[in-house]
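Can anyone check this?
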Amino acid sequence: MKNILTITLLLFVSGLAFSQGINNDFDYDKEDLNFIFNKLGFNTFKLPIKQEQNKYLDFVIEEYRNGKLVQKISLIDSIKVSLSKWYGDETMNFFKPELDSLKKDSIYFHRFYFHNKDSILDLSIKTHKITKLLKFNIDDLGLVSVRAIYAINEEIKKNGFIQVDTGKVILFLYANNKNKQILLCPSGLDKKTLIDRYDYCLFIIVKPYKQTSE
């Protein structure tokens, strides 16, 4: 199945310069691509975040069902134990930006890939030197959508990056159970309202990480 999908995407991308259809001589644009990839179950986000060299940023995933928190995952905590078996005291370097003696801080792109297929949601987070895959069972859910927080988009438009001084929700996935045929727009709603409105919510939060001695 994965090979078929890969071949299909390659064929699709190779033909982007051609018209969309017979007697419709217009090239594919961003809106077309987003629609098609969404139909294939893919959503991608690329967010610029400002980070100081000597500070760690963690991505925390919170999963809510029917208004209740059922799971909370720290990206750093979920993988540093395994990494430490091989890298020991050097483990935390995987979560730091590349060293640059000329810069005190820089803006780094962190990437989030959602793939909804066969009742399983794959969430891949790519940040600095690591990529982490998380899986969530969404068999009971119907319509599913993913968005960046409105305020985050506005901050990027204004400053060109996201400033992280405390915890910030940056992305969220929302859905209802299969017996509900509509999914109302969440634009401008705060976290609590989102949790109350939808049967399922998945939040991605960026926050400073304080390393503790073990």
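Reply from J.R.: I decoded it. The radius of gyration is 19 Å.
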